[in-house]
């Protein structure tokens, strides 16, 4: 008994092939950018080393809160790679622990920023004129205030006092610590407006594109148009924004740590390490130099990687 062959959807196959081709070409262009590749490799190495230091005692060698008063303010040596601080704590272990905490802040805060930015950006672009005006008004108000000032205000007033359980949690509790959650939310609630504006502008532009108009004319639902046509075409813009946004969140956390609004002692972040070493800057300036170098390396690597991704995903920006 013969069966009737089902027609093959050439259009759908061509769409998938084209999408794979675009991402493959972007990856090849990124590989040609040596500075971006090296930056990505350095970031991967730092992240891997920080994670291993928390899980494998042999990597960190000492506990970050272990005091040894017989080796106070020691210079770098074979026993202590980066020396010790004024309480005899090993700077190598404290730097790795502080880097991991700052990276957690950067990645988690950026994840919340992207979620809020995409949600409100699409709501503004697709929700009608009044909704768009409300969202634009909120973003304009957010831009009117200095970011760091608003982050400090949210961290202390909203998440530090109004929600004391979140604001004063033990950083060593399993899962997400209270201090980490409070800091992430404070940074995210101030920083989502940039991604929101990017997504809103991209969606408004795509609404007038030929393929979206064609999809709408053949009866495609709004959800399908958003899922198939709009979201994939905003992905490259969001990826680049994320790459530039993560170091900004890390720097914001460092600023909070420097003024004493990050994790409490004896826990460490890059900002608290700079704050701790600042008091000894004239007698042991290495306590400040090591975390500052790590902050600078993270900022530069994310910036170079972001430049490479921007050139790879949008070749028109290349000179």
Task: Summarize it.
By secondary structure, this protein is mainly alpha-helical.
Descriptive notes:
- The protein has 319 residues and is mainly α.
- The protein has a single domain (31-60, 84-317), classed as MetI-like fold (Orthogonal Bundle), CATH 1.10.3720.10.
- Helices cover 73% and strands 0% of the residues.
- The N and C termini lie far apart (62 Å).
- The model is unreliable at 8-18 and 162-176 (pLDDT under 50).
Shape, principal axes of CA atoms: elongated
Q: Termini, distance in Å?
A: 62 Å
Q: Based on the coordinates given, report the CATH architecture.
A: Orthogonal Bundle
Rounded to an integer in angstroms, the radius of gyration calculated over CA atoms is: 24 Å
Question: Helix-strand pattern, N to C?
Answer: HHHHHHHHHHHH
CATH topology: MetI-like fold
The total count of helices amounts to 12
Chart the SSEs and their pairings.
Blueprint: H1 10-32, H2 34-55, H3 57-60, H4 91-126, H5 129-143, H6 147-162, H7 164-167, H8 178-207, H9 210-217, H10 222-258, H11 270-278, H12 286-313
Helix pairs in contact: 1-12, 2-4, 2-12, 4-5, 4-8, 4-10, 4-11, 5-8, 6-8, 8-10, 9-10, 10-11, 10-12, 11-12
């Amino acid at each position: 008994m013969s069966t009737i062959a089902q027609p093959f959807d050439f259009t759908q196959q061509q769409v998938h092939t084209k999408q794979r081709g675009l991402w493959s070409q972007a990856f090849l262009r990124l590989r040609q950018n040596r500075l971006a590749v090296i930056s990505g490799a350095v970031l991967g190495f730092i992240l891997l080393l920080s994670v291993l230091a928390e899980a494998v005692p042999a990597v960190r060698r000492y506990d970050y809160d272990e005091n040894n008063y017989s080796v106070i303010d020691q210079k770098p040596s074979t026993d202590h790679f980066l020396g010790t601080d004024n309480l005899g704590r090993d700077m190598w272990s404290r730097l790795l622990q502080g880097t991991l905490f700052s990276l957690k802040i950067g990645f988690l805060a950026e994840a919340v920023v992207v979620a809020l930015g995409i949600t409100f950006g699409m709501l503004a672009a697709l929700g009608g004129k009044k909704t768009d005006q409300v969202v634009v008004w909120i973003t304009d108000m957010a831009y009117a205030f200095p970011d760091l000032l608003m982050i400090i205000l949210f961290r202390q007033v909203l998440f530090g006092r109004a929600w004391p359980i979140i604001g004063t949690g033990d950083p060593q509790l399993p899962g997400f610590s209270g201090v980490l959650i409070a800091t992430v939310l404070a940074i995210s609630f101030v920083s989502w407006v940039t991604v929101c504006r990017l997504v809103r502008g991209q969606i408004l532009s795509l609404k007038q594109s030929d393929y979206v108009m064609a999809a709408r004319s053949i009866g495609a639902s709004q959800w399908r148009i958003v899922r198939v046509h709009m979201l994939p075409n905003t992905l490259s813009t969001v990826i680049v924004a994320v790459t530039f946004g993560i170091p900004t969140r890390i720097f914001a956390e460092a600023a909070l740590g420097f003024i004493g609004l990050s994790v409490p002692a004896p826990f460490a972040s890059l900002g608290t390490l700079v704050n701790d070493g600042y008091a000894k800057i004239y007698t042991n300036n290495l306590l400040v130099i090591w975390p500052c170098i790590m902050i600078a390396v993270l900022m530069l690597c994310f910036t170079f990687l972001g430049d490479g991704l921007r050139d790879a995903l949008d070749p028109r920006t290349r000179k």
